[in-house]
TrEMBL record:
Record's keyword annotation contains Phosphoprotein: no
UniProt entry tagged with the keyword DNA damage: no
Protein name, UniProt field: DeoR family transcriptional regulator
MF terms (GO), sorted A to Z: DNA-binding transcription factor activity
Annotated source species: Marinococcus halophilus
InterPro entries (UniProt xref): DeoR_HTH, WH-like_DNA-bd_sf, WH_DNA-bd_sf
Coiled coil start-end: none
Length: 72
């Protein structure tokens, strides 16, 4: 059984890879794609933003940064 931390890390990684693939996405698109609440998406985006992996060039839109990431 996976812990809640494992699920969270997997979800955040999936969100990052989705944004990287799409280029720029809105928070609403992420809510629809992942089927989780806007609040949860926002928390996950805050983690990614804190780690300088995504940024918000305009309100509600997200894109990845140039920071190199090793995703396994």
């Amino acid at each position: 059984m996976r812990t809640s931390t494992d699920r969270m890390i997997t979800r955040i990684k999936s969100i990052y890879l989705y944004i990287k693939k799409r280029g720029t996405v809105t928070t609403g698109e992420l809510v629809d794609e992942f089927g989780i609440t806007q609040r949860t998406i926002q928390r996950d985006l805050n983690v990614l933003e804190y780690n300088e992996l995504v940024c918000s060039p305009s309100r509600g839109a997200w894109t990845t940064t140039a920071r190199k990431v090793k995703a396994s």
